[in-house]
Amino acid sequence: MRSGACTVQQTLTAEAASALKHSLSLARRRGHAQITPLHVAATLLSTRTSLLRRACLKSQPHQTSHPLQCRALELCFNVALNRLPTNPGPLLHGQPSFSNALIAALKRAQAHQRRGCIEQQPPQQPPLLTVKVELEQLILSILDDPSVSRVMREAGFSSTSVKNNIEDSSASSVFQCYSTSGGVFSSPCSPSATETQREVINPATFWQTHFLTCTAEQNPVLFSPQNKVSSNYFTDSCSVKEDIKLILEVLLGKKGKNVVVVGDCVPVTEGHIGELMGRLERGEVPTELKQTQIIEFHFAPVSLRFMKKEDVEMNLSELKRKVDSLGESGAIIYAGDLKWTVEETVGNGRGIRL
C-alpha cells in the first residue's frame, strides 16, 4: 500500500489538499473527533477571495444584501459546528478522522473529475487516467452533502444555484475583475483537447490510507514546512496591517511602472489579497489606488493541459485589452498560486509553455 503522502499528492491538487488541511485544523481546534463536510464548507467560505464565497455572492439577486447574507451563512455554519459532539479526551492517532459523509464526498469528487477528463480527451488516448481532484470538484461534492445543503437553506442560499455558478465559472472563465463597486466580469476561454499521458494508479488506495495520521515528514502536502503559518497570524491584526502597508508602499513606488509582488505562502497571500480587496471596496486606500481594479487571472491546471498555445495567447490578449481599457486607473493582477505558470510536459513531450 502506498504511503499517505504519496497517495494524497497523486489524488488531490495542492489547493484541494490545502482546504482539507485547514479543515483538519478547524476540527482539531473545536475538539471534534471527525472531519465532516461542514468543516470543509466552513473552511472554504472563510476566505474573502474563495471560489465558494464568490459563487454564493453571485447567487444572490440583491447586491446590497451580499455582505450581510454571507455573514449570516458563516454564522449558520458556526452554529452547525457547535452542535457537533466534542471529544474531551485525546484523539485517536492525535488527529480527527474522516467522517463517512466526507469520504463519500471525496469519492464523488474523484469520480466526477475523472469523468470530466475522459470526456475531454481524444478517443485514441487510453481511457483510464490518473486525475487529481481540483478544488472546484471538491466544492461541488461538498455542496451535495445534505448537512451542508440544509445550512445553506437556513441562510437563504440555494446549493443548486451556487453549484451552477461554480460550474459556469470553472468552464467558461479564466479570470475575474473586481472593482471598488464590487462588480465582477469574466472572459471566456476555448479549451481544446491535446494529447495527455498520465501514470495509472489504483484510486482505491487513497480511501484505504488515512493520510491525516501521518507526521509532517510523512505527509509534506498537508504539513509543508514552507507553507506552515502560525495559527495566530491571521488573528494578529498588527502583522496583517504591517504587511498590507508594505504592499501599498510598493504599489505606490515610483521606481518602476509595473511592480510584481510574490508571496512565499499561499494561505497568507490569499489573506492579503482578500484584505486588499476589502480596503478597495471600502475606499480605505491611498487616493492613487481608489480607482484601481483587481483582476484575478489564472488557469486551472486540468484546463491548461487541454488548451492549445493559441487559446492561452487569446486569453492573455483579452487580459491586456481589459487592462488597457482601465486607462490611468490601473489594475492589480492576482495570479494565484504560481504553480500553474510552470512549464509542464505531458504525453509525448508536448505541452503548454508559459
Automatic annotation (TrEMBL):
Keywords: Repeat, Transcription, Transcription regulation
InterPro entries referenced in this protein's UniProt entry, alphabetically: Clp_N_dom_sf, Clp_R_N, NBD_SMAX1-like, SL_signaling_regulator
Keyword Transcription: yes
Pfam families, A to Z: Clp_N, NBD_SMAX1
Positions of the Clp R domain: 8-173
Source domain of life: Eukaryota
Family per record: Belongs to the ClpA/ClpB family.
Protein name: CHAPERONE PROTEIN CLPD CHLOROPLASTIC
Species per Swiss-Prot/TrEMBL record: Salix koriyanagi
